[in-house]
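Protein record

Derive tokens from sequence
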Amino acid sequence: MRKIAVLVLLAISVTPLFAHRVSSPSGKITIEVKVQSKRPVYSISYAGKTVIAPSEVGFDFAEGYFGEGVAMGKVSRRKVNDDYNLPVGKTSHVHAVSNEMTVSLVEKTGLKRRVNMVVRAFDDAVAFRYEFPEGNNQLAIKNEVLDINPAGDPMFTALPLPAFINTHEGRYTIGKIAALEEGKIMDMPITMEFPGHIIMSVTEANLRDYSGMYLVRKGNKLTSRLSPRMDHPELSVIANRPHKTPWRVFFVSNKAGDIIASNVLTTLCDPCTAEDLSWLKPGKTTFPWWNDTCVPDTTFQAGNNFLTAKYYIDFAADSGLDYHSVYGYGDMPWYFDDGPSFGWAGPNADLTRPVGQLDFPAVCRYAHHRGVDIHVWLNWRALYKDIDRVFDKFNEWGVKGMMVDFMDRDDQEMILIQEDILRKAMEHKLFIQFHGASKPSGLVRTYPNEFTREGTLNYEVYKWDGLTLGPDHDISMPFTRMVAGAADYHLGGFRAVTTEEYKPRFHRPLVTCTRAHMLGMYIVLESYLQMVCDDPEAYRNQPGFKFLCGIPTNWDETVVPAAEVNKYAVIARRHGKDWFIGAINNSEARTLEIPLDFLGNGIFTAEICSDAPDSAENPNHILESSMDVQGGTLTISLASGGGFAAKISPAK
């Protein structure tokens, strides 16, 4: 009898079935994989409702399309428990449970190729990727096919981009699928709001040795495009077998906050292999480029010189900031560069050779004396051509990290370059801040020295075109770009004006959100190197600045008490025993009741910065107050373009 039972089970495991499903541990989310019209398709349901109707997957390989005539072979299943710590992140410890199935997709005729599709279902997302088994032939992919056929005509928030080479910055398009320009690539994450208050955000995780993926509207569905290689533009990926694709991740919930607070992306990435991470120090930094390197009330000329750096180092030390950023002055970098422009490194650019008027080692010594660390701006081309020598010199000087700028691509080569920079920087105990770069993909778990990255239209634009920004743009960030991970947003502008009063100016720029909105952004946005980018005069004796300096940049826990896509977001983050609540609002004034059940039992003291009654007309005005709270709810009033920030600590 025992032999018969084993044979029956074996037959079931290898016999192709019409459809295979895997559900989340709660049973609320289900993804189904089957062959339909001789092609593999997947579909996703939430609480019994279809959100993604059957949608084709496959590969356009150099040797021919994989998908037509594919059958499902062996299927295996397992439960995955993942417990890990994040030294840098929105939570310090993650416990993740998912159900996984692996489906073997096999061509019945022709080349008879096999690709394994690995599918995982979490309580707040489903994800799948492909594994290519060992083989003699090199993997050459023109495009990976990922169709998304949404059910129920959802509302989209999507970022259209002009070309594959781009800064990943732009205004979001919000509307039904007809509002998306057909054929134009769109960045991920892309967010959909379905009837019945179901929200989905689509992105990718563990992007390594592969090209970044974009989405394109094709009729009433979306389809994928991989970024082409620069050396072989007819291909997107060239790799040796065995190989794995990134994970295709579909967050789905009836609460937007579940998507914001999710840790699925880091869970799908590989653990960090470094043994010593004690040197990691997330924090806040100056960024003089934003304010045009103002040095008010001084007797010296601003420039690439020691005195300018000393002025900002003293400001950082006196304010409790962790870092000072050295970028240069005007359009001149701090290092020798014979390039034709600020964004393109010359053939002899040398990051170990500071410009003649800047005593850079003295800057590092003085910063160390004041308890401030130095990080630098640089062009990636100037770095990568001589990375080991440069990093050795940085260690010698005492530099702690760098902003690596003008990457502007996410083809396979650039993805490999980014990881190489992170890996070598980790070996040299240096942190990285990527600028002009594509979205993150959860690799802060693998490389916790990546503190933040740009990849979004942010407050730097206030210097020349601030009317493209504003609170209605800000509020899209938690539901789109930030779903992918930390976002550098150039925070700290303390010269707020109304939209009617705004004028672009490179020197001491203006912003068009309330000061409470600005303070709330430091809590709402995830970033482990937050900028304090205005000049010291903007902050002197200003309401809210002391509160700003006390906001942590690394967190033990994140919850989202209230959020509605493109309207408002209230995020609570815990650091030790203290909770910080940040709220940002779109241009519609509103009052919210915020549940405080996440605090637990006890009496707490709240220090609050909120919009003043006249904040809509005088956006620099805030109310600073304190009160005791004990469970229940907290009422907050948000002005048009307003915000809220509070520190809640156990009462003494």
Notes: The CA atoms of residues 198 and 254 lie 4 Å apart. The two ends are 70 Å apart (CA to CA). The chain is about 15% helix and 40% strand. Residues 412-427 form the longest helix (16 residues).
